[in-house]
What does this fold into?
Amino acid sequence: MRYSLVIRCGLWVAIVAAAIGTLRPLRAAEGEAEVASGTVSEIAAEQSDNAVPSAFDHYVVRGGWITLCALIPLSVAALALIVENGVTIRRKTIVPPETVDRLAGYFERKQYAEAVQFSGGNRSVVGHVVHCGLMEARNGYAEMERAMEDALEERGARLSRKIEYLNLIGNVAPMLGLFGTVHGIIGMFISISEAGGIPVMSRISHNLGTALVATFWGLLIAIPSLTVFGLLRNRIDVLLGECAIAAERLMAAFRPSAMAAETPHTAPGYHMAAATVAR
It folds into this structure.
């Protein structure tokens, strides 16, 4: 749902930008028609007034349809993913200290039913991992440990898939920018050929501007996307490591002692937790 909303926003931005880019050349053509009917002095005065284009013309309109329809929507999607992942991939959502402290209190007071209920309704990763371990209490500590490892691996894969879109955008954006660069250079050589081999600076500068603006947008999207992707990937590794340590410490009460290694069902609290899950 979130990613479909991002795609819709990107499409709307592309439509609006394309409309603006289409209207500006039309207005420019109308202005040229009016200028053609004026005197030489009026032409010179109007050209001097329009000599400084806006930043929108420099960095958006001159980029052509590749920038308007592909790179700008891609930048909107990248920004939305950076904000969404930056908000959700935090210690507060993966291994919140208050959740760990509350579960530790339940285990210390032998309140296993409350621990099962609380961890089942908790949305953090550590709560989910502990809940999966408790649900396997009837099968022994080895199965509890295996269930926690599987749950942690599943949540880690889910988080990695979320940020993989940033990696994809960071690798695709420079390719689109390069495509725009090649498109602009081809247009530049075509304009020289149409002019009989004589370079016309106005046409050359227009096509060269298209090439450079596309490259600019490609790098502008790729650099932050890949940087944030690397930072989030490292953050996921660190937080999942903390989650694994916290879950292991919480479930230490169910670990069989060295003297009872052959009868793991005699581990402290095992029968009470297993009876709670059975209910």
Remarks:
- Residues 2-278 form one domain.
